[in-house]
Specification:
This protein is an all-beta fold and 351 residues long. Helix content is 0%, strand content 56%. The strands form seven sheets. Strands 1, 2, 3, 4 and 29 form a five-stranded antiparallel sheet that branches. Strand 14 and strand 15 form a beta hairpin.
Length: 351
């Protein structure tokens, strides 16, 4: 249980251009509802996505160096949140964009957007990654000639029971399920969604029966059922994430669900908003609650804090974080802060 007067530590992955130098650290004062000024926690190139191990002892970041991509590992000081570099692994593929780790810290999975790859790393006893143990390349294309000229994997995340992990491929409009057998991912099921929708990110319902996919190329959230015995997805519903009359450029980004599974949040880049939906706990389907401005431009990601009472959005192009209080009964968001500066923020994760 998170105490309401606790200082909760968070991390921000960024694009290292302009003034940005790597991963930044901040604290959220849950008693006052305020964010601290972020400080540099680790200097490295383009740590656009980070993930934290379930035991809160390690942080893994996407890494880019001299045309190569890969992952970098850090230990976390449980009191201060300071990061200590442990090691890294690089591959020739330079466009890694997402990283996930299982709860036992046995395996790390990265998605490589540019080459349509999934790469698996085994972790040593000290939680550092070994060289890539397995690589899967997706093939195909979609109807959007500019964005779907080939496969573009954008997300890979474990199911709640970790028997499977789901991969979302924007380039071929598919959600593909894998299981890990003897350390090697094996495909077990594949679902094609609407051609040209460009699925980007996925979040599982805590009950393991449903999942929600944010499309990037159309303003939609795709609701899926999930068979946790077979790994098979089926489509249940599609809902809009922007108003019907909004016709300007919009690209969906992140999608997350509250820990109790009652509310889903989806971010729109262009409309610069977060759509809030309530879930039907029996059917998994969504009903619209509200649409809230992110008070900045191009919200690349957002995160709910461990208490469930706050949400932080990261506006990449305007370089600011936005803090909201969250009504746990209605799911609605109330603006608290919008002027916390971070250069080119992408990913937000709480310790």
């Amino acid at each position: 249980m998170v105490k309401h007067d606790q200082q909760i530590i968070g991390y921000i992955g960024t694009y290292t251009k302009g003034d940005s130098k790597g991963i930044y650290r901040f604290t959220l004062n849950t008693a006052e509802g305020k964010l601290s000024t972020p400080v540099l926690a680790a200097e490295l190139a383009d740590p656009t996505y980070v993930t934290i191990s379930e035991d809160k002892k390690h942080l893994y970041a996407i890494l880019k160096k001299a045309g190569s991509g890969g992952v970098s590992a850090y230990s976390i000081n449980e009191e201060s949140g300071e990061l200590t570099y442990l090691g890294e692994q690089l591959t020739p593929n330079g466009s890694s964009c997402h990283v996930s780790v299982d709860s036992k810290k046995d395996v790390l999975i990265t998605s490589n957007y540019g080459d349509g790859l999934i790469e698996a790393y085994r972790l040593q006893s000290d939680a550092t990654p070994l060289p890539v143990s397995s690589t899967i390349r997706h093939e195909g294309r979609g109807p959007n000639e500019e964005r779907q000229e080939k496969a573009h994997t954008h997300f890979a995340g474990f199911s709640p029971d970790e028997r499977f992990f789901a991969v979302v491929d924007l380039g071929i409009d598919k959600v593909i399920t894998y299981k890990i057998h003897n350390g090697v991912p094996e495909e077990v099921s594949s679902l094609s969604v609407a051609p040209g929708s460009g699925p980007r990110h996925l979040t599982f319902h805590p009950n393991g029966k449903f999942a929600y996919v944010m499309a990037e190329l159309v303003p939609e959230v795709i609701v899926l059922s999930f068979d946790d015995q077979t790994g098979r997805f089926s489509e249940l519903q599609t809902v809009r994430s922007t108003p019907d009359d909004f016709k300007e450029n919009n690209q969906g980004s992140a999608i997350h669900i509250s820990d109790d599974g009652r509310f889903v949040y989806a971010a729109n880049r262009g409309h610069d908003s977060i759509a809030v939906y309530e879930t039907d706990q029996k059917t998994g389907q969504l009903s619209f609650v509200e649409l809230v401005s992110t008070e900045g431009h191009w919200p690349r990601d957002f995160s709910l804090d461990p208490s469930g009472r706050f949400l932080i959005a990261s506006n990449e192009q305007s370089g600011n974080l936005t803090l909201y209080s969250r009504n746990e009964n209605t799911g609605t968001l109330t603006l608290l802060q919008k002027d916390i500066e971070v250069p080119f923020p992408v990913c937000v994760k709480f310790l």
